[in-house]
Amino acid sequence: MFRVRQKLIRRAVVNQTRSRHAYPSKDVRRLFIEYFQNQHDHLFVPSSSVIPQRKGEGTYFTNAGMNQFKPLFLGAVPPGSLMANYKRVVNSQKCIRVGGKHNDLDDVGHDLSHHTFFEMLGNWSFGDYFKRESCKMALELLTDVYKLPRERLYFTYFHGDATLNLPPDIESQTIWLELGIPESQILPFGMKDNFWDMGDTGPCGPCTEIHYDHIGEGGGAKLVNMDSSDVVEIWNLVFMQYNRFEILFLRPLANHHVDTGLGLERLTAVLKGSKSNYDTDLFSPLFETIHDVSN
Question: What CATH number has the domain bearing residue 274?
Answer without folding.
Answer: 3.30.930.10
